Amino acid sequence: MDALLNELQAGMQRRLLALPERIRPFTTSFTSLPRAISLTGPRGVGKTVFLLHHAKGKKILYMSADSPLLAGLKLYAIIKQAFLAGYEGVIVDEVHFAKDWSISLKAIYDEYPDRILWISDSSSLILRSGTADLSRRFLQISMPLLSFREFLFLEYGNSYSPIEAFTNSSSYTDSFKVQPEPKILEAWQKYKQQGTRPFYSEGNFSERLIAIMEKSLYYDIPFLVPSITDNNLRLMSSVISTLAQSVIPRLHVSSLCADWGIGSDKLYQLIGAMEAVGLLRVIRYEQDKKAKTAGAKLFLADPALYMVLGSNTGTAREAMVAMFCTNSGWNVYASKDETKGDFIISQFHNGKVIRFLLEVGGSKKVKKSADFVIRDDIDLPGLTALPLWLLGMGW
């Protein structure tokens, strides 16, 4: 076991030395962390960097549960030995790959009340599927895709405060905190193509994003859908390809079920799993409370996938608005009357619920009956016309 701990420590040191000079602001916005956290988020958003950044200066041991070093070993025994060796805490990445991980963590948490336990995974639903209840013990932190505001920091080192585009009557003035000068607008075009995950700067973004999509399908979803078949996996790949090319972001459930020989319950289960691991974003009508649904609109959760897979521009814009608004704290719903607008967003603000109807399009898009029209390819906002890039400054 001592040899294993030495190997893990050496691996952690290599990772610490490889940390980027600029780290996404979501990570650095946390000045300190409690002793037990559960960090979730899509693959490739920087969860490992988050954990290692906060481990600097502490005697904490990092391990990834999918490492061959840990194959066949009990997580409980490894962590206990690390504590006996003098470590003040452990990080367990990709925790669901460890056998009986939830039981082990519950026991360690209770037996070592003064030690640090930080875990991560790609889906909170995967963590909730554990047999032991960890929710009341671990602080839940959800890490979203990279915002345009964070992208500007990684590109240029410029720090901007989040901008609330809808409820702030001075959003026009706020936009000048980020002067839409040529380099900002150039960065916006780059962000739309490959800016949603911090590894964009390392090159081969398209190939890496496809690899993440496939790993989410073939490695993560089987933990949520144990009875999954090869036919189910091919169906989910087909759903992604179909949505990437669709002008109207919806699925024809009955046709899909007939074509692939599955029941609607199974299809809804697969869609729910794809949503849970960050592949899809289901947008419902405002009063739709059905557990089994493909939504009123169904988007790829990462808008950059539309660019990688060769998409319809209008659908990609709508997917980006849905992502921006969701990550900025808004509830996002589909409009039942698309002659008036595309989305309804709502939020509890200053003691009351506020709602706005949004229309989404290019630089010439008209407002229809919406409260705001979100236009891509414009630089400055007007009273009710907001540039799409401004929404990307919300978190």
Automatic annotation (TrEMBL):
One family name in Pfam for this protein: AAA_14
Keyword terms, alphabetized: ATP-binding, Nucleotide-binding
Origin superkingdom: Bacteria
Molecular function GO labels: ATP binding
Domain AAA span(s) in chain numbering: 35-152
Protein name per the record: ATP-binding protein
Coiled-coil annotated residue ranges, if any: none
